[in-house]
Design goal:
Helices cover 78% and strands 0% of the residues. The protein contains three helices and no strands.
Length: 85
């Protein structure tokens, strides 16, 4: 489950960059819907991080922090499951 969320988060970051650099047309219905779905999936987890980590020179590091946190949690949970077996 955490791996799937990591993928969703990475796709959100890529889509947001593509939109910021006008590579994708955000007026397109499919793109707008995809961005909206990704935003709704990622924003609840990113919002608390943004409260503690401000943007630096216009860069939002909250997705990177969340990816590192998920990576850490996957390792901890994996070790716990492996030790129970």
């Amino acid at each position: 489950m955490l791996e799937l969320y990591q993928i969703v988060l990475i796709v959100w970051v890529v889509f947001s960059w593509l939109a910021a650099f006008n590579v994708v047309n955000t007026s397109n219905g499919f793109v707008r819907t995809a961005m909206n779905v990704l935003w709704r999936l990622t924003e609840p987890a990113l919002r608390p991080i943004r409260r503690f980590v401000p943007m630096i020179s216009g860069l939002d590091f909250s997705p990177l922090i969340l990816l590192l946190l998920i990576y850490f949690l996957r390792g901890v949970v994996g070790r716990m499951i492996h030790s129970m077996a």
